[in-house]
Design goal:
With 121 residues, the protein is α+β, with helices and mostly antiparallel strands. The chain has one domain: Alpha-Beta Complex (Sufe protein. Chain: A). 32% of the residues lie in helices and 18% in strands. A 4-stranded antiparallel β-sheet has the order 1-2-3-4.
C-alpha cells in the first residue's frame, strides 16, 4: 500500500464509484493528472445534470481544489448546477482528487440513511 504522501504514480488514475441512492443514477468518477498540477475529471452517469455540470467545469488545479476555499468554490458550483443539494457525486470528485494528489489513501466511505420505523407521522 502506498503512503498517503506518495500520491499516485504518473499516468495513473483514480476511480470513485458513487451510488447516490434514491435517484438511482450511479456514477463512475475518474480523475487523471493533466499536467502542471491540473486534473482531468470525467464522470459516467445517467444523470443529465451531473453530465452537464462536469462538462462545464473546465480545468481543475489540484493545489486549489484541495484547499478549503477551492473546495468551497467547487461545491458552490455543484450546488448551483445540480438539482439535489445532497448529491454525493461532487464529494466523489473531491475524494478521488485527494487520493490522486496523495492527500488521502483509497478507502470506502459510506453514508447510509434509513427511516426510523418506530416513529409514526
Amino acid at each position: 500500500m502506498k503512503a498517503a504522501s506518495a500520491g499516485v504514480e504518473a499516468g495513473e488514475r483514480v476511480l470513485a464509484q458513487v451510488d447516490p441512492g434514491a435517484c438511482g443514477f450511479e456514477a463512475l468518477v475518474t480523475v487523471r493528472p493533466a499536467g502542471e498540477g491540473r486534473l482531468r475529471v470525467t464522470v459516467e452517469s445517467g444523470c443529465e445534470s451531473v453530465t452537464l455540470w462536469i462538462d462545464g467545469l473546465g480545468p481543475l488545479h489540484a493545489h486549489t481544489l484541495l484547499r478549503p476555499e477551492g473546495a468551497a468554490r467547487f461545491l458552490a458550483g455543484a450546488l448551483k448546477a445540480l438539482p439535489h443539494a445532497t448529491c454525493p457525486v461532487p464529494l466523489g470528485v473531491l475524494r478521488a482528487a485527494e487520493i490522486l494528489a496523495g492527500a488521502a489513501l483509497p478507502s470506502v466511505a459510506v453514508i447510509r440513511t434509513e427511516s426510523d420505523p418506530s416513529k409514526t407521522t
